[in-house]
Recover the amino acids of this structure.
């Protein structure tokens, strides 16, 4: 994999490009507290977000809000090239409060997917080139230039939102439709006991087949996804309520505090209490 990347000193903005040879499944953390803008320069990918699978091709741009479970997987063809941008709301908030209206539009939808025209692809490519030049050169006021370039991309996305429907890019595969149903069920029932045999019985398929196509479609094993859904719910309770850890473990579907602590640290890299402390220091 050939990569090029830049991260601002305050962690408010980062951009990277990658040329990937062969098959590839992303391995990094699958949800985060930043917006993600993903642009596919070449190849095809399946982009799983929330409870849907999108089939994206060259020239497609995806933007998702913070905290969305997501992952990209192979679309049965090797090799792809992409640009990936992460940014915090605070990175553009300092420019002009009115710019936040673009993100508010996105927040109401959770994600945006569109295939750019040839002309718009050239415009986007030029913006990415300028971003890398500014990031690498670090001339005076380069962060202001990066903010302006990002706003240009977001403004174009804002114009697109009323003209394109993300559902046009949904995979038509019956397998993907079935897994979308399973994901929706997990998202709505993570407080209950969830096992592979119980899920397989609920959706009238064999446990082995369910496990295999779930991993192929989402990039997660069933247990990984169930744990992610529960940890994500627990994080929100840790940050936004004063509930005790034992109560949060119960309200997010974990069988015990020890299981909660272990799984939470596996997924996030820190303990529940450290998560709460960190949120108070932001």
């Amino acid at each position: 994999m050939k990569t090029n990347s830049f991260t601002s000193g305050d962690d408010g903005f980062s951009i990277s490009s990658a040329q990937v040879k062969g098959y590839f499944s992303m391995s990094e953390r699958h949800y985060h507290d930043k917006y993600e803008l993903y642009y596919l320069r070449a190849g095809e990918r399946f982009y799983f977000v929330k409870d849907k699978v999108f089939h994206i091709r060259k020239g497609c741009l995806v933007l998702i809000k913070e905290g969305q479970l997501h992952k990209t997987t192979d679309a049965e063809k090797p090799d792809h090239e992409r640009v990936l941008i992460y940014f915090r709301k605070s990175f553009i908030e300092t420019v002009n409060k009115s710019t936040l209206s673009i993100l508010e539009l996105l927040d109401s939808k959770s994600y945006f997917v569109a295939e750019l025209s040839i002309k718009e692809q050239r415009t986007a490519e030029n913006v990415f080139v300028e971003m890398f030049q500014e990031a690498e050169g670090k001339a005076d006021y380069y962060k202001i230039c990066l903010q302006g370039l990002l706003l240009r991309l977001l403004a174009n996305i804002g114009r697109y939102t009323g003209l394109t429907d993300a559902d046009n890019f949904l995979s038509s595969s019956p397998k993907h439709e079935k897994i979308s149903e399973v994901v929706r069920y997990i998202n709505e029932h993570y407080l209950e006991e969830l096992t592979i045999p119980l899920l397989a019985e609920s959706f009238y398929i064999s446990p082995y087949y369910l496990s295999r196509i779930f991993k192929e479609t989402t990039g997660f094993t069933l247990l990984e996804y169930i744990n992610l859904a529960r940890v994500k719910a627990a994080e929100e309770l840790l940050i936004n309520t004063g509930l005790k850890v034992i109560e949060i473990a119960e309200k997010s579907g974990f069988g015990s505090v020890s299981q909660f602590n272990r799984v939470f640290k596996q997924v996030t890299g820190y303990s529940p209490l450290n998560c709460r402390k960190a949120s108070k220091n932001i």
